[in-house]
Amino acid sequence: MTAETSAQTHDRARVQRRTIATTMVSVIPTTMAMGASFAGSAVLAEEITGSETLATLAAGSMSLGSMAAAVPLSRRMARLGRRQGLVVGWALGAAGSIAALLAAVLNLYLLVVLGIIGVGVGQATNLAARYAVADLAPDDRRARAIGMLVWASTFGAAAGPTIALGPSADFAQFIGLPELAGPYLLGSATFLAGLAITQTWLRPDPLEVLGTVGAEAPRPASPAAVIRRIAAIPAARLALLAMLVGQMVMVAVMTATPLHMTSGDQDYAVIGQVISLHIIGMYAFSPIVGWLVDRLGTHTVITLGGLILFLGAELAGHTDPEHSAGLFSGLTLIGIGWSCGLIAGSALLTNSFPVRQRVEVQGGADFVMITGGAVGGMSSGALVELLGFQSLSHYSGIAALVLVAAAAGAWITARLARPRQLA
Asked: What backbone phi and psi angles, to 5 degrees, belong to 308?
């Protein structure tokens, strides 16, 4: 290794450490904003309309905002860098929180939906942040870098629902606003905090270090073309399936759980605690998940994640609305299973493409993943009214078993192909 190469390696490692630190600090308030806003969305919409279906449609509109933002965010990042994409995304999230706050004050359902769509843009930005820490990471430590970023989200995301439906709701009442305006006071302030941290300290931009920002690039591919590119590579297909199934199961069950609990006359604070523990499951174990991915491989962790999703969905589905213990346990397991699929899938997807294709492919994969979440979330209320919460959870568990079968099949295929490759 020459002295120049050694210096470049050192500089890249220094920028990577700064990128990880800045992004970890940024996502703490922005995931608090997302958790706070989501926790109040279905309850606020049901209070305005009296309909569970309209309530879950409003909560599910967060996924619509995320879906609409995924590809434009990735294109902006590919052209201008990670910082510019994150700042714009979180600004739109703050605007959505303010709109939802006005909905609580004015008692307007349409404004709830529009506000939660804006919050969904912030959620897509939180998801995109995981790729910022993967840009400069070595291949054998990429999953751990993603895991550390997801882990940082624990602090904000777990506290968000509890603070939103507790102290923030009390503060809103104290200053003369409706109780359910509290989550959106918190959401707008914390989105703006994350935005300011990123704008100030995410320098240099990791994509600038890779040399892809400002370089002459081909015309952006359409979402359909990007998805076809993913579908052409078996490893990328499995990565996308892992993220898609995890998101669908997680969003569907999490969206319906507050309504299931309110039908059992459970207190808002208990609902917030269940959602908080679920979010702890999503984020708190992610460094361990990342380490397992780097040590055991993506296929093993994706299989494990599918099994955990299945167990969590079945446990939640067999819990009566008057009880909370099974929901605490089931939602926590679903969160852990989601973490396995997201981290293993993100690392596998990133490793499947060259540097100049990664950002666009990542945006396309997130588009598909979030679309699946939108379908799960927005249909969950109707499915609960038609079939019941237990059936919704049961079919979610079956979807998780499909992921297990796909991952196990891919692992077996790779093992059988290995002797031929060696020969």
From this structure: -65, -40
